[in-house]
Every structure is written in C-alpha cells, then in structure tokens.
Write a structure and sequence with these properties.
Largest sheet: 7 strands, parallel
Number of helices: 12
Low-confidence stretches: 1-16, 188-206
Distance between the termini: 27 Å
Helix content: 25-40%
Strand content: 5-15%
Structural class: alpha/beta
Shape: globular
Mean pLDDT: 88
CATH topology: Rossmann fold
CATH architecture: 3-Layer(aba) Sandwich
Number of domains: 1
Number of strands: 13
Order of helices and strands: HEHEHEHEEHEEEHHHHHEEEHEEH
CATH class: Alpha Beta
C-alpha cells in the first residue's frame, strides 16, 4: 500500500511538471492587419511569417485580425469571436452608449479554435495595443455584463453574458503602452505609423487594407482611392469619443483601463520592453540610436523630450523619455496607473520559479516598435527578435498549469 502511494505521488508530480501544449494566439496592435490583408507581407514577421516559424517548431499558433483603430472593448470581442466562432456581438449596452451597430452583418466566423474553453486554454500574445486588447479579453471572460438593470438580465452574447474563468493560461505583452503613450495626443491628428502601411500598400496594393469599422457605419467605397479612404477615416466623428484606439492609448484612457483590468491570480503575465533611444547626458533627453530607422527617428526624438499630463494635472517625468519610437519604455513593464495602484511587476530571472498573478518583465531590448515584430531592414535585428519569440514559446510551454 505504501509503495502504491509513493508511485501515485510520483505520477502526480510528473503530471504537474509536464509541458502544456496550449495554442498561442497572436494579436496585432494599432493599425495592424491580418495574415491576408497586405498580400504576403505579415504583421508578425514582415517578409517572413512568425506563425509559420513557430508552427515549424511544433507549436500550434493562431493569428487574428481585429479592428486596427477600434477600441479595446471591440477588439477583444473580435478576438474571442474569431477564435470561438459565431456572430460578432459588441453588447447591447456598449452599442447603445456609442450609437454603433451591435451585430454588424458579415462579421461571422467559423472559429479558428472552436474547442476553446477552460479545458483547452490559450496563451495570448499581443504587440503594442494588442497587449491592452488581450487584458480586456481576460476581463470580458471573467465578467457577466448586465444588459437590463431593471430585470438584472445579462447580455445575450456567450462572451458578455456568461462567466468563463480558466480560458487563458498566460498573457504576454510586447512593447505595449500599459500606462499609455505620450504620443497619443498626436495620434488622432497625424496618424503616426500610418506611413509604414502606406509604403507597404503602394507595393502590394492598398485594396488589401481595411479599417474594419462597419459598426460605425464606415466602409470603403467600391472605387474609392486609398487617400480618400484614409482622409475620411482621419476625420471620422469616432475620434471624438472614448470608443476608439486614441482614448485607450492615451495616458488618461490607459489609467481608466488599468482601474478595471486587474490581474487574475490564475494567469501568468509577461511583458517585453523595447527601446530605440539612448540618453543624451548633455541634455537629459533621450535621442534616437544611430542605427534607428528613418521612420522611427522623428517620433523617438519627440517622445524622448516630451512631458505630458494627465487630466488631474500630474505629469510624466524624465523616466518616460526612453522609448522605442512609438511607446515609452517605462509604460511597457505593466499597468501602474490604475486607482488600485500598480500591478505586481518584477524583472524576469531565468531560473525563477514562476507564479501566476504577477507581471514578469523582460528587456529592454535594443529593437524599435516595429523591428520587434519583423519590420526591419536588418537581418541581425530580425534574427534577435525571432530568437526572443522562440525562447518565449518554449517558456510558455514549460509553465506549470492546473
């Protein structure tokens, strides 16, 4: 009997330490695109395909395509529905609040991973705004959203009307503005980073790219030029609401998110920091690195010397100057500005015994906001970025999960 108990104990230990084989889901950021939207040029990998690279190493990977300028609320619902399948439903309360179409026609999906549930969880990886989006998805999965307060009736959608705990194994953010970016106040006026897409569109054909705003009643005309489409998007009334990316990426918008999207004690959290600047000791500002791409330099210089303010009058300081050309590096470590105070955040150490419910931050790595996902002219940079993903995929596989 004693021998049997020892054997059972050893078997249980093996099970607890066994690798997990949960799928990885890649979620793009602001102005991102899906696998088929820009021809053969991938958001995750550029001229290469990160999904394919990971799959060749034995990982199951899904890449979703969500609204490039939509709010995190809507983007998270799109991630869920594309994975699980069904009709997009942004929720009755949300639709009425912002005057959008609750269930846009044509937004129906077969489901990339229809078996997704608490017994088949996923590892979520989000770049830039995608890191906020996957945190929002975790919130939506854990809540029951009330649609009719009179009858205390929940939303009718499977996501918003039911509690779904245990569906996420880990959350990884890459160059994510958890506390916002000081570039956000410029974002609605000049669309920084859009020139990256314009350049690509000129090569592969701009007909591939869509802002995915059917719920706002906004779509591209049949023969409309790319410049006209872009101009109408830039002038759309949505930019004056909180239901758009510019609010979520701002300092105050991120603070609002951080007050709601708190860590789950059963989920592992990782954050990757990037930088494209160096300290100029003569001024105290951060300036673009010598090898920074030309498209990165102007924004990196602005971020490296700009003080921005929250609505309560408090301001950022010099610790916000280091940046990757789009996001302040300090904002990437994890959420710190919510009303409940900062999330638990520690530096990742290779031999640490990892526990869920706190952020492990890695970096900062000498890669700008775009080279970390493969948009670079340097083979050496992409090789470094690729090795980070492969190492992290292995890290996620080794996580001890219930």
């Amino acid at each position: 009997m004693k021998k049997l108990l020892v054997i059972l104990f050893l078997l249980s230990t093996v099970v607890l330490k066994a690798d997990n084989n949960y799928p990885i889901v890649l979620v793009h950021g602001f102005l991102g695109w899906g696998p088929e939207e820009l021809g053969g040029y991938k958001y995750w990998g550029g001229t290469e395909d990160l999904q394919k690279i990971l799959e060749e190493k034995g990982y199951q990977v899904f890449t979703v395509s969500v609204g490039p300028v939509s709010s995190n609320w809507e983007r998270a619902i799109e991630v869920y529905t594309q994975l699980k399948g069904g009709q997009i439903d942004y929720g009755n309360v949300h639709a009425k609040k912002y005057g959008i179409v609750q269930m846009p026609e044509g937004k129906k999906y077969v489901g990339l991973y229809s078996e997704w549930d608490e017994n088949h969880p996923v590892h979520l990886i989000g770049h830039s705004m995608g890191g906020q989006t996957i945190r929002m998805l975790q919130y939506q999965l854990s809540q029951i959203i009330i649609s009719d307060t009179t009858n205390n009736a929940p939303e009718k959608s499977a996501l918003l009307g039911e509690e779904k705990n245990g569906w996420i194994a880990s959350i990884t953010s890459i160059a994510t503005p958890h506390d916002g970016t000081t570039l956000a106040n410029i974002m609605t006026k000049t669309f920084p980073c859009l020139q990256n897409i314009i350049g690509i569109a000129n090569v592969v054909g701009s007909g591939f790219y869509d802002f995915d705003l059917e719920h706002w009643g906004f779509s591209r005309g049949e023969n409309e030029t790319w410049s006209s489409y872009r101009r109408r998007m830039k002038d759309h009334l949505a930019w004056g609401t909180k239901n758009i990316c510019a609010w979520d990426l701002s300092l105050d918008g991120a603070k609002e998110l951080n007050s709601t999207l708190i860590v789950d004690p059963n989920i592992y959290y990782f954050s990757f920091q990037t930088t494209a600047t160096n300290l100029d000791t003569s001024t105290g500002y951060y300036i673009p690195k010598e090898d920074a791409m030309l498209l990165t330099r102007p924004r990196a210089k602005i971020l490296g010397s700009t003080i921005s303010y929250w609505k309560d009058g408090s301001s950022t300081d010099s610790t916000w100057f280091n940046n990757d050309g789009v996001v302040n590096t300090i904002s990437m470590t994890g959420p710190k500005t919510g009303v409940n105070g900062p999330d638990p955040i520690i530096e990742y150490q290779e031999n640490d015994l990892l526990i869920p419910g706190q952020w492990y931050t890695l970096g900062p790595y000498d890669l700008d906001h775009w080279s970390i996902i493969g948009h670079t002219l340097s083979d050496e940079e992409w090789a470094r970025a690729r090795s980070l993903y492969l190492a992290h995929a292995e890290r996620l596989k080794k996580l001890t999960l219930n």
